[in-house]
Structure formats: C-alpha cells, structure tokens
Specification:
Two copies of one chain form a homodimer. In chain A, strand 3 and strand 4 form a beta hairpin. Chain A is built from nine helices and four strands, in the order βαβαββααααααα. Chains A, B: One of its GO terms (biological process) is glutathione metabolic process.
Chain lengths: ~210, ~210
C-alpha cells in the first residue's frame, strides 16, 4: 500500500494515526500542497485523484480518496485494534463525530478555501483568520458538548476510535491559527491524553519526512 | 424513528432517499432553516443537535446527526435493499464518492456559509453565486471523471448505492443556483435515470409536507 499525503494536511494526518494504531506498514509519498502552485494540481497526481486533494491510498488495483473512506477500508481489511465499536448505535455516533470534523469543520477551512478567500475575494489576513476561527468555534462548541456525554480517557469511553484519529489533527490545525481553546476543557483533556500516545506521536506532522 | 429535516436541505434529502429505497417508515418533523432566524438555532432543536444542522435521526435512545452516519446506521440495522456493496474495495469507493459530495462540495455551499459570506463579509449576490458555482464546478468535474469509470445505469454499476442518494440532492441544489450542467454528461445521464425512480420522486423536496 502507498499513501499519498502531506505532512500538514489534517486529512492525511487522520489516516496516518489510524495506520499507526493498527500497526500498518505503508509507503508514504509526499504531495507538496504549496510548492509550484501545489503538486496536487499537477497531471501526475490528478491522474490518481481528480479531486486534487490529499490523501489518496493505493492498494493494488484500488485507488481510494477521502480520509474517512480510507480509514473504514483499513478497518474492514486490516488487522490491529478495531477503531469502530461493534454495536451499530455506537458505531454511528463515532462516525457522526468524525463527520462533524470532516464534513463541517475542516472543509470550510482547508487550504483551497482560504486561498480563494484571499485570492478571488481579496480578504485580508485578519478577515481570513476571523473566518477560520468562526467556523472552528461553531464546530468545537458542538464537539465539546458531544464529548461531555461520550468521553472517557478518549473521545468515546476508554477505547481508541476513528473519532480520536479525526480530533487530534483538527486541534493541531486550530493551534496553527491561534484559536482560543479555553472554552473546550473536555476536548483539550482528551486531546492531551491522545497526543501522549506513541501512535499519535509517530503520525504527527513534525515527524514526517516531508516536514520542514 | 423520527427524522428531523427540512424540505430543501440536501443532507436531509439524502436520508429521505435512502429511507424510501429501503421502505423505512419514519415520522418526519420539519425544522425550518430560515424562518425566525432558523429553528435549528433554537433551544428545542439545539438540545437534540448541538451542531444546529439538519438532519437528526431519533431512534429510541439514539439521537444521531450527520446524514452519512445516519444512512450507514440504517444500512446496518434496517431491512430493504443494501446500499453498500459487500466487497470492501467497492464499499470504499462508494463511500469516497459520498464524501466527495458531503465533505467537499456541500459544506462550502450550505446555508450558513452563504449567510456568512453575505452578512459578515458583505458579498454581493453575484459574488455569492460565483462562490457557489466555483466549488460546484471543481467538485462536479471530479465526480464526472469518477462516474466515467464507475457508472452503469446508476453511479456504481446497475445497483443503487448511497452514492446515488448523495448525487441527486447535490444536483438539485446546483440547479437552484443555475449552475451550467453541460460539462457533466455522465453525471446528468445517471441523475436523470435516478430521478425517474419512485423512491427519488417520493423523497424530492417538492413532495415534502413542509415544502412551500
């Protein structure tokens, strides 16, 4: 298997965490999202992923995009600790938490959207940061409430799930934008416990070969 | 079971299609997203869903948000036709297609984002429409390429999947914003076949009790 990603992409970071927890050995290839206008827009990567986004997983014949789909695929085909509960209602709640991040928080704040806001719409750095922090706050407020009901040591009780794989990269991203994290004590506590785990350390952006 | 939705919400529309295909009988409650500043922001709905978004499914003790999580929950717990293939690689491709829509196209163009663009950032109607059409075009260009490889009668071969449940509402939404659909012949052909099916007709926005 080969994973195409970028050290700072929070979507790729999710998949790296899931792989590290499961102990999956996978070749990593870097797609530089900024250099030369973004390698994701070049013909080589576009042939793999017409959406021009990372990550992409290649497993034999299968070329798969979308971090959540990739993690579910790994869950269904690879060994290691399960990252979804076996009970359907619990699985659903974990998936919904992941989608709160992957569908509602991350997409409005990813690189291409911020580039459009500043390029096409001419927003200042301050307005761009306000945009980012607004959607982050709206999203984290809801996550904090969900975690108050679901969290143990981790996002759902004391067992690692895909929710944890999504949470840490989004918090990492928020810190880059200097979001005030004080209103989210449960989220912060869960995140601190996760970030101390070996799998999360190994998957962290700073520990990737393409980090700089 | 009770589904909280809104006739024009494309996320709620996805779930209605899946329910109609599976023949699930479910009470529908309308959450008016525009009236009085939006009922989704009121205390009654917020207690159900702190993210203040539709849809929400209530099934006994379970209160579940996120359209994709709801559809996977229905897939795992209810009868009727399966909407995910049994092969893991095929399941993954269907999920990725759903996420292309639910994570990459829809979130940057949903009501709250368009409201922020016009309210906080003061965009004109024309600039707002340009924003919408830009992200739609970026997303549909990738979907068209995916469909060229995967489509039969429907998005993945000749069997209905969750991908079809996501595709039709996004096209419905695009038409509202008068997006030029000419560049997407495969997508259009699949969509036309889907829209002729009873389940898709029953789930259409105009056929909901709260439509007006």
């Amino acid at each position: 298997m080969t994973l195409y990603g970028y050290w700072r992409s929070s979507a790729a970071y999710r998949v790296r965490i899931a792989m590290a927890i499961k102990g999956i050995d996978c070749e990593q290839r870097a797609v530089h999202l900024v250099k030369d206008g973004g390698e994701q827009h070049g013909p080589v990567y576009r042939a793999l992923n017409p959406a021009e986004l990372v990550p992409t997983l290649v497993d034999g014949e299968l070329v798969l995009s979308q971090s959540l789909a990739i993690m579910e695929y790994l869950e269904e085909t690879q060994g290691g600790p399960a990252l979804l509960p076996s009970n359907p209602a619990e699985r659903a709640r974990v998936r919904a938490f992941c989608q709160d991040i992957a569908c509602d928080i991350h997409p409005v704040n990813n690189l291409r959207v911020l580039q459009y806001l500043q390029g096409e719409l001419g927003l200042s750095d301050g307005q761009k940061d306000d945009w980012y922090r607004h959607w982050l706050a709206v999203g984290f407020r809801a996550l904090e409430q969900r975690l108050e009901a679901s969290a143990g040591r981790y996002a759902f009780g004391d067992t690692l799930t895909l929710a944890d794989c999504c949470l840490v990269p989004q918090v990492y991203n928020a810190r880059r934008f200097k979001v005030d994290m004080a209103p989210y004590p449960t989220l912060n506590a869960v995140c601190a416990r996760l970030e101390a785990l070996d799998a999360f350390i190994a998957a962290a952006p700073e520990h990737q070969l393409d980090a700089h």
